[in-house]
Amino acid sequence: MIQSEKQRHNGDEEVCIANGVSYEKIPQEGSSITALEVFFSGYPRMVGLSLFPRLCQLTLVGQSISHIKGLESCPLLREFWVVECQLTDISGLQNCHQLQKLYLYDNQISKIENLESLVNLQVLWLNNNFITHIEVWILDPNISIENLNLSGNKICSFKELTLLAPLTCLRVLGLKDPQSSPTPVCLLCNYATHVLYHMPGLQRLDTYDVSSKHLKDAAESTVIKKMMYYNMRVRTAQRNLAETQANLLENKRNLLQLPEDRIRALNYALKNLECELSEVQALCRKSARTWEDGLSPLSEGSGDRSDTLADITRDPGLEHKILSKLDTLKERLQFWNRKLEEIESWYQRDLAQATKRNEMMVYFLLMELETVGNIRFEEGCSTDPWFTSCYDLLLSRFCAWDYKAHGITGIKINRIIRIHNRSLRLRFEDKLHTLLASEESTMNYKRWLEYLFYVSDPERTSEKNEMLHIPEDGFKTADMYKALGRERAVPLSNSLSVTDSPRIEYTQRQANQGTSKQSIDPLLFRHGQLIVSKVFLGRSFPIHEGNSVDALNYPKAHSVYRNVSPDGCDCSLRQSQWFVFDRELVLPEYLIDFEYITQVGKSIPCLSFNVPIFVNPPNNSRETLNMEPMLKPRPKLLCLDEKTLLNVARANVLSQITVLNLHGNSLSKLKEISRLTALRRLTISFNEFTQLDDISHMPNLEFVDASYNHLLTLEGLRGLGRLNQLDLRWNQLTRAREETAVLRKHAPTLLRLDTRHNPWHRPEAVRMTVLGRLISLTHLDDMLVTEEEAGAAVQMAAGSRISQASLLAHSRTDSERPRSLSLLSAAQLLDQLSPSPWDITGDLEQGWTTKITALNLDSQRLSRLTNLDKLVNLRWASFNDNNISKVEGLDNCQHLEELSLNDNCISRLDGVSKLHQLTKLSVNGNQLSCLDGTVLDRMPNLHFLSVENNCIGSLNGVHRARSLFELYIGNNIITSTRDIYHLKALTNLIILDLYGNPLVEKLESYRIYVVFHLPSLKALDGVAVEMTECENAKDVFGGRLTPDMVAEKLGHSNYSDVVDLNLQSSAISMVDLAPADLFHNMRSVNLEHNNLTSFSGLVYLPNIKALCLNYNHIESILPRQKAQAPLTNRQILYHKVNSSGYGQQGSSKGSSLEPLMSSLEVLHLSHNGISNMANLQLSRLTNLKALFLQGNEISQVEGLEGLHQLRELVLDRNRIKALGENSFFGQAFLLELHLAENRLRELNHLQPLTELRRLFLGMNKLQVPLLQQSSSVLQLQVIVLSGNTEPFICIHILHVPWGRETPPCPAPLSQLQNVDEVWH
Q1: How high is the pLDDT of residue 463?
Q2: Where is coiled-coil annotated (predicted)?
Q3: Do residues 150 and 127 make contact, with C-beta atoms less than 8 angstroms apart?
C-alpha cells in the first residue's frame, strides 16, 4: 500500500513538473488549470488527474500507459491525446461526455470499443494500431464524428468500411495517411469509388479533396451500373436454377407416369372389388334370412342381383377369393406407393443439390459486388488450362483403395471454380516476401510451395457453411481451430481420402444415431466440396509422438506433417496430413464440387439425366388384376334418376338408402342426391366431378370418397355437419387455404382428410396450412396428427395476420435508404443492418406507428394485408413468400417507394393504384394474367417493375408506365411479336428481361429484333447489348414493313379489315407482310416517300388492285440478284453468237418470266430515278391497266411486251428522245398515252396503238410535218401539243379519263384537265 501511494505521489509530481506547476500549490491552483501535457517522461500510470477538476485538454505522448484510468474526475475534458504509448484497449472514457477530440494513434489497440458515451466526439484518430475489424453498430452512437483516421491498421475488407456509412457527419477520413503505412484495404481496386459511394458527405479522403460533386456522381453512377449488372447476373443464376427445376420436374413426371398408371388401375380394381364384396355379403345375409322363411332366394331381385346370387351359389368360396384378391391388390399398391416415394426422394435430392449450387453461385456473385470486384469467381471448363491442371491434380490424389469399404470406385468432378481474392493474395505475397527477406531465409521458396486440400469438418466448425466463407476471409487462425477442438494450426492434406475422412465419419455417425434425414441413397456423403490452396510449407518437420500440434512445440517450423499409411495401398507414402501454423501462408485458389462414384450395380439414379428408375418393371400388377374372380364390367351411369338410385342401392325407398357406391361411372352431377336424407356413406370415385355442390346440406353424411375426379375447388360445399371422413386424392385442387376455409366452416366435425396427389400451390406448406385451420383432424393424408404438430400449426395460423408484435419485430424507423452494395430491397436491408428501435419492455409512445418507415414481413405466412392504415410514413415494404391473394390495406401508405410482393397468390394489382410515389414494384411468382394500364398510369415515378414467373400473356398496358428504367417479365406466356411495340413508348427503358417466354423461341432473330425496336436498351435477358448487335439489328430490320408495324400504325391487328393501307414517309426499305393471307381484303397500298428498291413482299399480296410507290428508289419488281461470277471468254463468245443459245436461259425478256400480282391494275412509279424500263420487268404484271412513270430518267420506252391489258401509260417528264420500233409492241388496247415534257423530236412507231384515243405531247420538240406524218394512222379524240417547236391549234373533241380506280394519290390527269380549261 505504501509503494502504490509512493508511485501515485511520484506521478502527481511528474505531471506538475512537466507542466511547470508547483506541486505544493496544487490545492490552490489546480482548479484553474485546463490543459496538461506530458512528453517522453516517466508517467506509466494515469494518476493525479483528480487535482485538476476543470481539465479540458490532456496530452500524453511517449509514455508506457497500457490502460486509460483516472478520468472520472475530469468531466469537462474535451481533447484527449494518448499517443505513442502502449495502450492496448479503449476504456475509462465513460464519464467524458464532453469529449470532442480523441487521439489514440501509435498504440497497440486491436478493437474499437467503449465509445458509446462519447456522443459529442468529433475527431477520432486511431491510426497505427492493430485494428482488423470494425464491429457492427459500434460507432453508431458517435454520429457527430467529422474526422476519422484509421491509417496504418490491418483492415482488409470493404465490409468494414461499409460500417462507417452511418457516420453522416463524417467529412475527413484517413486510411492511407502519408505519415502512416497504408491500410491493406486501400490497396484494393475501386477503393475510392467504394468509399465515396457509401460516404457521400466526405470532403477529404487520405488528404485528397473529394468535395467535387462530379466525383460523387461518378462514384454513384459506377456503383448503380454495377448493381444493375450483378442484379442481372443473379437473375440469370436463378433462371438457370428454374430451368434445372423444370427439367427435374419433367423427368420426375415421366418417371411417375408408370407407377401412377399402375396405382390408378389397382385402385380402380380395388374399389370395384370392395363394391362387389359389399353386395356379396349383403346378398348372403339376405339369402340366409330367405331360406329361414322357406322362400327361394332366386325368386326376387333384378337381373344383376340374380347373376351375383347365382355366382355365389355356384362358387361358395367367392367371398374368400374376393378378400384374397383385395389383400394382393393392397400389397401391389404398397409397392407402387413406395416407388412414388423413391422417385420423390430422388427428385428432392437432385433439387436440393441444384438449389445448393445455385445458392453458392448467388452468394459468390453478391460477394463480388460487395467487394467491388476484388473477389472474383471464375467457373472453369475443359478448354481452360488451369481447369485441366486442377482436374488432373484431384484425380491423381484420389485412391480407390481408401474407399474400398464404401464401394466407391471413382470420383466425378461436377465443377471447378477459380477464386481470385486480391486481398488474400496480397497478404500471402507480403508474408512470403517478409519471410524471404529475413536473414535466416536462404531456401529456394518454390521448392516449398505445394497445393493441398481442405474439407470442412461439420462437427467442428463455427459456421453453417464454412466453405463459402474461406474464399472471402481465408482460413481461420490457429487459435480459432484450437477453440473448435482441432489442432492449433490450419489442417490440410495432399490426399482426398485423408482430408475428407472427418466429414465421412461424421455423416456415418449421424446416420447410425438416426439424427440425419432418411435418404434412399446408401452413400450419404456422396456429394462433397473441397478447397485447393496454394501453401508455403517453409521449414517443415514431422510431428513428434506425444507432442501436440502447436507452434510453441516447434519454434523454428512453419508447418508440421504426419504421414498416413493405409494398409494395402501402393500410394500410401504419398499421403500426408499437414498443419500450417500461420494462416497467411495458405491461399485458397480453387473450389471443387465433386461426387463419389459407386461400383456397378449400386449406381444411383439421377433425375437430372433422366436415368429411368424402372428397368423392366414387374408384371405382378397385371397378374394381380387377372386373378380370380374376374368381375364383369358394369354399365356406366351417365345420369341419375330415382329408379337408378334405387337399383344401385338395392333399396325400395330413397329415404332408406344409407350407403351409395357410384364408383367408376361418368357422372359429373348428382341431381337427385339431396333426396337421400338418410345417406351416411357416399363413394363417387373415378368420375368426372369438378365440384361437390350437389352433396351440400346432407345432415347425416359421414363418409365421402371423391378420389380420382377433376375437382377444381370445394367452393359451394355446404351443410355437412356430421362429415368425419373425406377422401380428395388425385384431383386438381391447388389452393389449400381456400379449400380448408370451406371445410372449416361447413364440415366442422371432420376427423380424417386425405389431400394427397393434388397439384397444390406450395405443396410443402399444405400440411401445416390444413392443420392450422382444421383443428378437429386426427388423421391427415393417412398419417396421425400429433399434439405437437397440431399445436405448432395452430400457432402458425394465428400468426397469419399482421399484429402489433410482428410490426414491432420487423419494422424500422430509418429516414434514409442504406447505402450498401446489396441487391436486397431497402426493407430487407434495414431489417438486417439496423437495430430495432423499439423498447418492447416498456410502454409504447402514442403514434409510434407513424414513425415506421420500413417493414419486412417476408415468410410470415400472411394471408391478408391488414393493420397497415396507421403506417402513414411507410417508405419501404416487403411481403415476400406469404399467402397473400389480394393487394389491400395500403391506401394510407402514400409515401411508399418500394414494395415487394414476390411469391404470393396475387392475381390483380388494383391495390397499388394509389401509391403515386412508388419507384420499385416486384410481384414475381404470383398469378397475374395481365398488366393493368390504368394502375400503371397512376404510378408516374415507377422506375423498376418485376413480374417474372406469372401468367401474363401480353405486354399491353405496360406502355403506361412511362418512367420505367428496368422491366423484368421473364417466364410468362408472351407469344406475340406485336407486344414488343408496347415497349416502344418506354423511352427510358435500359434493362429488359423477357427470357422464358414463348416469344423468345418463336421469333427468329429475337434478340436483334428487340434491340432494333428498343434502341435505348443497354441489357436484354441478362446480357449486355453490344454495339455490333445494334448495327446488325439496323441492317436486318431497318425499314422493314411487317404485320407488327402495320398493327402499330393502325392501332389494331385485325388485318382482314384492312382495305386501304397508307404508310407514306415511314422510312420503309423492305416489305415482309407474311403470311400474305392475313391481308386478303387489302385492295390499295400507298407507300410514297419511302426507301424501297423493289416491290419486295408486296408481290405476295393476293388481291392488290392499286399500288402507289412514288418517290422511292424502285429498280425492279423483285430484289436485285447477287452479283454473279465474271464470265469466262468462252461464255462471252457464246453470248455474242445468238445462234449458240448458250446463256439465254437467264434472259430478262418479260415474256419468258413467270407472271406476278395477277390482280394489280394500277401502278404508280413516279420519281423513282428509273432509267431502264426493261430492268423493271413490268411485263410480269399481266393484268396491269394503268401505269404511271412520270418524273423519272427514262430515255427509251421498252419492256412493255407482256402488258396486253394496258389502257393508260404516263411517261411525262422523262428523257425520251425517240420511240423505238418495239416500244409499244403488244399494246393494242392502249387508250391514253402521256409523253409530255420529254425530248421528242419526232413521233414514230405508234402504229401498234390502234385504239389510242388520247395523246399528250406537250413541252417536247415536235414539228408539224413530222407530226402529221406520224399521226395520220391514229384515230385520236384528244391530242395536246402545247409547248412544242411550232404553235399548234389543239382541238378538244372528247375527254373522258379512263378508270376511276386509282389509289388516293395525285394522278397526272387532274393536271391535264387544268390544261384543257386553258384551251377552251
Answers
A1: 78
A2: 234-290
A3: yes
> How many Å apart are CA 1117 and CA 738, to the nearest integer?
65
Give the Cβ contact number of residue 334 at 10 Å. 10
Question: Phi-psi bin for 330: left (phi > 0), alpha (psi -120 to 50), beta?
Answer: alpha
Looking up cell 477529404 gives 204
Query: What cell numbers appear for 172 in the block?
Result: 475527413
Q: Read off the pLDDT of residues 96-110 as tens digits, 9 standing for 90 and up.
A: 999 999 999 999 999
The pLDDT assigned to 313 comes to 53
The CA distance from 146 to 754, in Å, is 66
The Cα 508–Cα 497 span in angstroms is: 15
3-state secondary structure (DSSP) of residue 238: helix
Residue 964 identity (one-letter amino acid): L
* Helix, strand or coil, per DSSP, at residue 340: helix
Q: How many residues does the chain have?
A: 1320
CA gap 674, 667 in Å, rounded = 16
Q: Which three cell numbers stand for residue 446?
A: 518454390
Three-state secondary-structure class, residue 206 = coil
Cell readout for 1066 is 415511314
Host H or E run for residue 741: helix 736-746
pTM: 0.78
Contact predicate 245/351, CB 8 Å: yes
Cβ within 8 Å of residue 177, ≥6 positions away: 127, 149, 151, 152, 206, 207
* C-beta separation of 1239 from 1260 below 8 A: yes
Cell numbers for 240: 438457370
Q: How many helices (H) and strands (E) does the chain have?
A: 27, 46
Contact 685, 708 (CB under 8 A): yes
Q: What is the Cα–Cα distance from 372 to 1051, expressed in whole angstroms?
A: 47
Q: Residue 92: left if φ>0, alpha if ψ -120 to 50, beta else—which one? A: left
C-alpha distances in angstroms, 742 versus 200, 752, 758, 1042? 56, 15, 17, 52
In the sheet where 920-922 sits, what is the strand order? 811-812, 854-856, 876-878, 898-900, 920-922, 944-946, 966-968, 991-993, 1019-1020, 1023-1024
Identify the pLDDT of residue 1265. 56
- Which residues in 554-601 belong to E strands, given as ranges? 559-563, 576-580, 586-598
Cα(875)–Cα(918) distance, integer angstroms: 9
How far apart CA 986 and CA 970 sit, in angstroms, is 18
**Regions of the chain short of the pLDDT cut 70:** 1-12, 14, 18, 20, 23, 25, 28, 30, 41-42, 284-316, 439-443, 514-520, 566-573, 600-619, 1120-1152, 1264-1274, 1286-1320
Distance CA 767, CA 134 (A): 45
pLDDT for 777 equals 93
Report whether 1144 contacts 1087 (CB < 8 A).
no
Residue 719 near residue 697 (C-beta atoms within 8 A): yes
Rg of the chain on CA atoms, in Å: 45
Owner of C-alpha cell 408496347: 982
Q: Answer for the pair 1294, 1271: CB distance below 8 angstroms, yes or no.
A: no
Pairing mode, if any, of strands 408-421 and 449-454?
unpaired
Cell 474407399 identifies what position? Answer: 403
- Give the alpha-carbon dihedral of 1038, 1044, 1045, 1047, to 10 degrees: 180
CA dihedral (961, 964, 969, 973) in degrees, to 10, reads 30
The 449-454 sheet, strands edge to edge: 375-379, 408-421, 586-598, 527-536, 449-454, 490-493, 576-580, 559-563, 540-542
Helix or strand run (H / E) with residue 191:
helix 191-198
Q: CB 220: neighbour CB atoms within 10 A?
A: 15
User: Would you say 491 and 466 are in contact if contact means Cβ atoms under 8 Å apart?
Assistant: no
| Chain mean position to CA 669 | 43
Cα→Cα distances 805→844, 857, 896, Å: 12, 12, 22
Instruction: For 499-654, list the strands marked E by DSSP.
Output: 527-536, 540-542, 559-563, 576-580, 586-598
